[in-house]
Amino acid sequence: MARRALKLASLTAATSGIYLYGNKFLDPNDFGIVRVGRAIATTAVIAYDYLTSLRSVPYGSEEYEFVKSQVHLRSAERLRELCCANRGTFIKVGQHLGALDYLLPEEYTRTLKVLHSQAPQSTRQEIEQVIREDLGKEIKELFLSFEDTPLGAASLAQVHKAVLQDGRTVAVKIQHPKVQAQSSKDILLMEVLLLVVKQIFPDFEFMWLVEEAKKNLPLELDFLNEGRNAEKVAHMLKNFDFLKVPRIYWELSTRRVLLMEFMEGGQVNDKAYMEKNGINVNEISRNLGKLYSEMIFVNGFVHCDPHPGNVLVKKCPASGKAHIILLDHGLYQVLSDSFRMDYCRLWQALIKADMKRVQKYSRRLGAGDLYPLFACMLTARSWESVNRGIDRSPVSAREDVEIRSNAAAYLPQITQLLNNVPRQMLLLLKTNDLLRGIEAALHTRASASSFLNMSRCCIRAVSTYQRSKSHSLYRRAQISLGEALSLWQINLYELFLWLKGSQLGNWVIALLSRMHHSTY
């Protein structure tokens, strides 16, 4: 019945012929009535499944948990099919949900992750038309060569490798031609459907998703904004010599076409690629953590889409150093100073296992009485680990399973939290989960060095902010001295950890032990 409803919605206007785009028959999937009908049918089927499947099962029983998991899986598969059929904005939102590993039930995140590799491709004719409309020339006039097969296709655009007339190899990012026209209508449709679902399921709090899409999608569809972001982050992080950001060629860039320096490498979660090319996995993980700690805590300007396709690694043949290549700069979050300071102090409290301050700064960030859940969401650790200290022990397989299962058990509370926290927090949570996914793939999760780097950035950020607010020379000197002492303590602790794990350290410990025993 469910599949018949979906097929009926998809076929209602499929036989209509409208001669529109580029002198070609429009794809039936682009008709408003088909897209709306399919979305309504899918939402109705999912709601009906939850209402009927769980109605007669005793709440909290093993059978209830099993049935609920099956409903989650069926619903996630229907949602994935809807995203693939309606494309564009739907795929973008589905990808966002698929990235929330530790916030949503695993059935949803596992099923929706495939949307990163199932994005639609525009045809050669559509690509030619966008370039002709935006740059006023044909492809053959602009490029010596232009590869038909895209290097990658995403929900909003695809990227082709090309060679300019002067011989420079470039990456050409071209927006799918129908996305602009459909995006605002798609977001309105999602908003209406989510409001209807909330009437049926009062605990269903996903309006934050639509609000984020409303705010961010227009920015992501403006490639000139993406180019500016790329240049800003490259300048902001210029002290990190391992970071590479493609240069923008402004003379051939528009709101729908972006020309960049061509860069290639292996995906950041491809451990086999790194081992094959002599790239130190721990160094890459450590440097990626440095980049994001600097962006979040120090600068408050954060690249919020670090999925593996957007973060590449490559060993420089000349220097032998491993580079991190950061791509796709359309989605950034700007953090206010007040939010950034509260977030810094919260992470300092989490690293020190200072529960009073964890509660204080979680409440200031909108968590209220749900601050224990909020701390677990931020760290992807159990409440027991948070109390003990998240840097004290690595994440065990048992704890990881516990966190994922809790995402399903506490879904109403999680969605309530996501509605209550500042909007700036939402993309940070997504970014955190994407970075954890990379660390999990590289087996470097929750290393002591990552927390030490975070601590350094938090200390620097808070000290810089305090100095900027102080008018007293003595007070500023006092802040600087405190900062220097705190950073010195971290360096000393890092040296201790290095000695403890090194052969030299083992010799020193053995020598001290023998000296101690000989004394007595």
UniProtKB/TrEMBL annotation:
Gene3D superfamilies: Transferase(Phosphotransferase) domain 1 (1.10.510.10). CDD domains: ADCK1-like. One of its GO terms (molecular function) is ATP binding. InterPro entries: ABC1_dom (IPR004147), ADCK1_dom (IPR045307), Kinase-like_dom_sf (IPR011009), Mito_struct-func_regulator (IPR051130), Prot_kinase_dom (IPR000719). Residues 145-474 form the Protein kinase domain. GO terms for cellular component: mitochondrial inner membrane. One of its GO terms (biological process) is lipid homeostasis. Belongs to the protein kinase superfamily. ADCK protein kinase family. Appears to be essential for maintaining mitochondrial cristae formation and mitochondrial function by acting via YME1L1 in a kinase-independent manner to regulate essential mitochondrial structural proteins OPA1 and IMMT. The action of this enzyme is not yet clear. It is not known if it has protein kinase activity and what type of substrate it would phosphorylate (Ser, Thr or Tyr). This is AarF domain-containing protein kinase 1. It holds the Pfam family ABC1.
